[in-house]
Structures are given as structure tokens and as C-alpha cells.
TrEMBL record:
<dbReference type="InterPro" id="IPR042651">
    <property type="entry name" value="Rgs22"/>
</dbReference>
<dbReference type="InterPro" id="IPR036305">
    <property type="entry name" value="RGS_sf"/>
</dbReference>
<dbReference type="GO" id="GO:0005634">
    <property type="term" value="C:nucleus"/>
</dbReference>
<dbReference type="InterPro" id="IPR044926">
    <property type="entry name" value="RGS_subdomain_2"/>
</dbReference>
<protein>
    <submittedName>
        <fullName>Regulator of G-protein signaling 22</fullName>
    </submittedName>
</protein>
<dbReference type="Pfam" id="PF00615">
    <property type="entry name" value="RGS"/>
</dbReference>
<dbReference type="GO" id="GO:0009966">
    <property type="term" value="P:regulation of signal transduction"/>
</dbReference>
<dbReference type="GO" id="GO:0005737">
    <property type="term" value="C:cytoplasm"/>
</dbReference>
<dbReference type="InterPro" id="IPR048074">
    <property type="entry name" value="RGS22_RGS_fourth"/>
</dbReference>
<dbReference type="InterPro" id="IPR016137">
    <property type="entry name" value="RGS"/>
</dbReference>
<feature type="domain" description="RGS">
    <location>
        <begin position="16"/>
        <end position="122"/>
    </location>
</feature>
<dbReference type="GO" id="GO:0001965">
    <property type="term" value="F:G-protein alpha-subunit binding"/>
</dbReference>
Length: 158
């Protein structure tokens, strides 16, 4: 029974997290929050959102050329970037290689493994973010994160 309750709360948390990533305001706040935790985590939020848009595009039955353009845009931005490092998100090199090998295959699943990896990675920061924002008004969250970022930058410089 206890194990089941834990799983239910965990899946409930994952659903809440997924909704938060789809909410532009919360996603921006969370993105800023994780940017303080690691260099590629901020990109992870953007990648997850872009893959969702890509999947929506696939399900909307738009033309293949548009779908292919979206695949190329995601790859150029996150998987094989012209800006070093080439891999701009925290996924294993094998996953990136697999995406590149299957880049011509249209369909909603090309980024599936990578999106799941990123989701799991970001989800670890979700409870900390919830705790952080609990005592702040929604319009004060980004300001508080900017102050934290400023302090972090001063520490690096000093």
C-alpha cells in the first residue's frame, strides 16, 4: 500500500511538472532556476518545449517539409550546434548519434529518448524549485532568481 501511494504521488508530481513546463510563465521561472544549477540545464527546458511543439506539429498532420524543418532546427540548436559544445543538452552521446542517424525519419518519436532523459534530469530540480517559490509571489520569482544569479557571478569574479 505504502509503495503504491508513493508511486501515485510521484506520477502526480510528474504530471504537475509536465504542466509547468507547458506553462510559459512557470517554465521561464523554472528555466532561470535551473540555469543556476548547471550550464546545460537551461537548454534542457527549451529542448523539452521544442520537442513538445515538434510532436504537436506531427500530430497536426502538416506537410513533411515543415516537419523536416522543425527536426533540423532542433538538431542544429541542441544536438549538433555550430556553437561549441556541439551537444547543447545533457544527453548521452549515443542518444545524440541516434537522433542524427534517424533525422530523415518523420514522426513524433525521433526525440523521444532524449526528451525522456532531459525530463528525468530536470525533474530532480522540481521539488527544490517548488520549495523555493513557495514563499514568493509569482511576480517576484524571476527577480529573486536574478539576485541569486548576480551573487553567483560576483562569487565567480571575486
Amino acid at each position: 500500500q505504502h509503495v503504491d501511494n508513493k508511486w501515485v504521488s510521484s506520477s502526480r508530481e510528474k504530471i504537475a511538472f509536465r504542466k509547468a513546463l507547458l506553462n510559459p510563465v512557470t517554465a521561464k521561472q523554472f528555466q532561470r532556476f535551473v540555469s543556476l544549477k548547471g550550464d546545460l540545464l537551461e537548454n534542457g527546458v527549451l529542448f523539452w518545449q521544442e520537442v513538445q511543439k515538434y510532436k504537436d506539429l506531427c500530430h497536426s498532420h502538416c506537410d513533411d517539409a515543415t516537419v523536416q524543418k522543425k527536426i533540423t532546427a532542433i538538431i542544429d540548436c541542441f544536438i549538433s550546434s555550430a556553437v561549441p559544445p556541439a551537444l547543447q543538452i545533457d544527453i548521452p552521446a549515443e542518444q545524440a548519434k541516434k537522433i542524427l542517424e534517424h533525422r530523415k525519419e518523420l514522426g513524433p518519436y525521433i526525440f523521444r529518448e532524449a526528451q525522456m532523459t532531459i525530463f528525468a534530469l530536470l525533474f530532480k530540480f522540481w521539488p527544490k524549485f517548488c520549495k523555493f517559490r513557495r514563499n514568493l509571489a509569482s511576480d517576484k520569482i524571476l527577480l529573486a532568481l536574478e539576485k541569486k544569479k548576480g551573487k553567483k557571478m560576483q562569487k565567480k569574479e571575486g
